[in-house]
Structure formats: structure tokens, C-alpha cells
Amino acid sequence: MPRAEPSVRVGVDVGGTFTDVCARDAAGRLRELKVPTTPENPAIGVMNGVAALGLGARALAAMAHGTTAVTNAIVEGRIATVGLVTTRGFRDVLEIGRQNRAQLYELIAPGKPEALVPRRLRLEVAERVAVDGTVVQGLDPADVPALVERLREAGVDSVAVCLLHAYANPAHERQLREALGRAFPHVSISSDINAEFREYERTATTVLNAAVMPLAARYVDELVGRLGAGFPLHLLHSAGGMMSAEAAKARPLAMAMSGPAAGVAAAAWVAKRLGIDRALAFDMGGTTTDVC
Prior knowledge:
Layout: E1 8-14, E2 18-24, E3 30-36, H1 42-52, E4 60-67, H2 69-76, E5 82-87, H3 93-96, E6 122-125, E7 128-129, E8 135-137, H4 144-154, E9 158-162, H5 171-181, E10 187-189, H6 190-193, H7 199-227, E11 233-236, E12 242-244, H8 245-250, H9 258-273, E13 282-284, E14 289-291
């Protein structure tokens, strides 16, 4: 007897305390419940919720998934040890930051937040690209093995690469990604993550992406393994749209506001249905609270 085609679509929201699961079958019937989140492996909580609804992975046609896993990891400091590779002379951009801060003219400057990457893990390479993308100094492949060895000895979990003006010409960053990728499974390059000018913002964004990459990869791989290869898993990103499992592993920082974005979208939908044109949304979870 042929197996029935999967017909149930599931929506999942993984928070720091609870995981919410909502299932809709082909007839439009809705079922939902709340189960405890399993922080050591959030995929377990997701599948516990699916099972509690009386469903198995084979019954599911698709899953839409919002999560605060990346948000909470950043807020709580549960991030990977990152090594930063940058153009010679620019290793301290991440620590210098910007001048636009509160109390700019105070004689005693307020304390600065700790740099995302300590100075000993910020390494430089001899290369240079001009603002128009012209190569001023090529990247010497002979310099890369020593770079890899230093990062390996430092025990980093993930590597961020942010070279000067790489948004205009990403060739050197791509060379480094290929070389570093043979030694480290998690490598983020700025021309993929935030291909825009302004070095501090691009560096900080790339480093944060690298910092949550291992966590996101473990979670997504675990969930895909339980759902089955090729399963249509869609993860909500910060702009309110969806991204594939592979995209989520490569650009996990795009999910930094995944859970909050889901709350905003839901609040907007409810307000529209009720004819409310000015609304305040309050989304309180076990770890963070979002207001918009």
C-alpha cells in the first residue's frame, strides 16, 4: 500500500524557555502546543513538540521556523572563540570603533565594551585593495600556512576575514576562505556577510556572524538530520522573510532578530485584522522581551 503524501505544515518558534509548535493539515485544521525548550540541543525540543501533536517527520510537508537561539547566544555571551584576519595595519579597527558615542566630550571617558575579538587573535596579512577595487598589493599564498598555524595554535572555533575594501573586490577574501576552510569548518568573509563600505561596521558584523556560526551549524544539522535530508526547512530571518537551512548555516547572524521579527509580523497581522492602525506589540519570552 503506497504511503500517503505528507500534508501537514508546521510552524515552530524556539525560545529560551519554551518551544511553540503549530500544525496545519490539508483540511485547514490547526493544532498547537507549548513544550520546554531543550537548550543543550533545541532540535530535541522541536521534535518533542511535533511528536506531542501525534505527528512524525514523515507526515510533515514543510516547516517554517523562527528562533531566538542566535539572539540569546549573543545576549548571554554563549559565542564561539573567533580569530580575525584583516589587512596589515587594520587589526585595531574593531577596538577603536566609532566616535559617535554618548558623553562625547566627557573628560573621563565612560568604559568601552570589550572588543569582540581580543588583540592576540586579530591577525594581519600583507595585501591591499583600493577603494575602487584595484589591487594595490596582491595576497601572497606563501603567507597563508603560517596564518593558519597561528590560528590553530590559538584554538579558535571560527574565523572572520575582513580585508580593506573587500566589498569592491572580494578576490583576496575568497582566496583566504578557500585556504582557511581546509583547516577550519567555520569561516565568514565580509564580502559575503556585509558587502558595504565602513570598516568598523563590516568587521563587527562579520565577527558576530563567525561567533554564532558553530552554534547555528550544529543546530541546523541536527534538525535536518531528524527531519530527513532534502526536507523543506525554512528559517525566519531578521527581515521577516525565510532562508534555507544552508543559508542559515552560512549567514546565521541574519537570524539575530528571527524571533522578534516573527512577533512583529504576527502583531501586524492581528492589528490589521482588528482594524487597528496604531499598535504597540509586547513580546515577552523567558530570556528577552521585545517591544515595537
